Amino acid sequence: MRKLSVKDIISKIESEELFHAVASDYSFTIKIDDYVPYACAAIHNGHQFRKELWSKCLHSEYDRWYEEDPKTKNMLKPHPIVISGLDSRFEYDLNRDPDTAIYEDAWGKQLWKEPLTEDEKSRSLEKHQNFYKVVYALIKTLEMKFGCCIVYDMHSYNWKRWDREVPTWNLGTSNIDNERYRNSVEDWRKELSEIKLPNGIPTTAKVNDTFQGNGYFLKFITNNFDNSLVLATEVAKIYCDEEGQVSYPEVVSAIRKGLKKRLPEHASNFYNIYSN
Q1: Residue 1: is its pLDDT beyond 80?
Q2: What percent helix, strand, coil does the chain show, rounded to 5?
Q3: Residues 66-120: pLDDT tens digits?
Q4: Is the dihedral of CA 188, 94, 24, 73 positive or negative?
Q5: Treating both helix axes as pointing N-terminal to C-terminal, what angle do 118-146 and 216-224 enclose, rounded to 10 degrees?
Q6: Which residues, in sequence order, are bridge partners of residue 151?
Q7: pLDDT by residue (tens digit) across 127-165?
Q8: What per-residue confidence (pLDDT) applies to 158?
Q9: A single Gene Ontology molecular function, please (predicted)?
Q10: Dist. CA 265–CA 273, nearest whole Å
Q11: Is there a contact between 205 and 168 (Cβ–Cβ < 8 Å)?
């Protein structure tokens, strides 16, 4: 994997080159093994936290891990186009707009012992801005090349904090064109519900049950591109012990295997319907 500037990454995308890269500031990775009409994203996969901010942060390393989406990039590994965050959402949240991307408090707890300086904030927001420059170039290239594009926006959530039964998979669709894409949403929900998981883990899949798809990543693409659908896809953290910070490799592997088969098939069906 090569270290590349954002300018070089965008240039390679616009030239339709195949490459694996990490951004020169190590804030995200992108790989393109083929140009296809779909892309995968794991924007909350990152756990890095800038060293100069450690002493200011009231949340522990475990607190941060608990709210991140570990292993989501791993689940998407087989797919030809994957973009993934490397930084923790506690430094800046790629799923929030720039004005709210830096938390003051997080999940009911004050985040900083003392306010961040403007310089500390601007360094984080520059990384946020660069990420979206690349996202824009990528989706623009795919939409121009294929006439449409579908993006699988992969997240995870802490099912144990809910005091009711919640689904293994949740699709958030409140900010997409549901009339236009209703069938694609239902097909994806059905595909997810059929992924086999070990240890008797159920695979229920629902729409807008725990989350409604209000993230900035989805809104950014939806607002900038007329023929691109983003499916905000949340998996409950059944693949790890939320409280013990231990991952279950066999469950991660089963999810990856299920997505490896079903995701390209779903994307192909989407392309066949919407490319015209």
Answers
A1: yes
A2: 40, 20, 40
A3: 999 999 999 999 999 999 999 999 999 999 999 999 998 877 778 899 999 999 9
A4: negative
A5: 50
A6: 39, 230
A7: 999 999 999 999 999 999 999 999 999 999 999 888 999
A8: 93
A9: hydrolase activity
A10: 13
A11: yes
DSSP 271: H
Would you state the structure tokens that stand for residue 179, as one six-digit string?
């009339």
Paired strand residues for 236: 157
Domain that holds residue 17: 2-274
Which residue carries 């409950």 as its tokens?
236
Q: Which of 146, 134, 118 is nearest to 220 (CA)?
A: 134
- Structural domain tally of the chain? 1
Structure tokens at 100: 């709210």
- What are the CA-CA distances from residue 202 to residues 39, 112, 206, 255 (Å)? 27, 39, 13, 12
pLDDT of residue 129: 98
Residue in this structure with the two tokens 């490397």, named with its chain if needed: 86
Is residue 92 within 8 A of residue 101, CB to CB? The reply is yes
Q: Which DSSP state fits 76?
A: T
Tokens of 24: 């020169």
Q: What is the DSSP letter of 57?
A: B
Among residues 209, 227, 212, the alpha carbon closest in space to that of 175 is found at: 212
Q: What is the CATH number of the domain that holds 197?
A: 3.40.630.40
- Are 206 and 236 within 8 A, CB to CB? no
